[in-house]
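Question (not urgent): is this output format expected?
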Amino acid sequence: MKGALAADGVLYRDYGGAVPLEEILDTSLRVSKRGLLDVFRKARLPDGTNLLVIVDQFEELFRYQTQSASATVSQQSGEEAAAFVNLLLEARRQAALPIYIVLTMRSDFLGNCAEFQGCQKQLTRASILCLA
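Got this back:
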């Protein structure tokens, strides 16, 4: 997500800071589950600007966790996955900022969302359209 947000023109135009923007965004996103909200606020975008976050193939989050070779790597990837999901859920829960989340996921992975607290509940509240 940090790479997409750091792309020129997404949140900032012609960023010329000494520290790479991607590093700043990475730190902000890792600090708390409100990281995406904080990044959006700090960008000081013009009024009426919306942020659309598209997460394609969300099910890869679950596949990545199960493919980890060692218990340490698996635990770390699980923590990173949970942090990522929390960023998305927090952006979804709040109504003050115009941040919209779109997930694409194979339907056979819907049950896996129960691994993350609040994820399955938010998905059932969302509009879901399945095309075969």
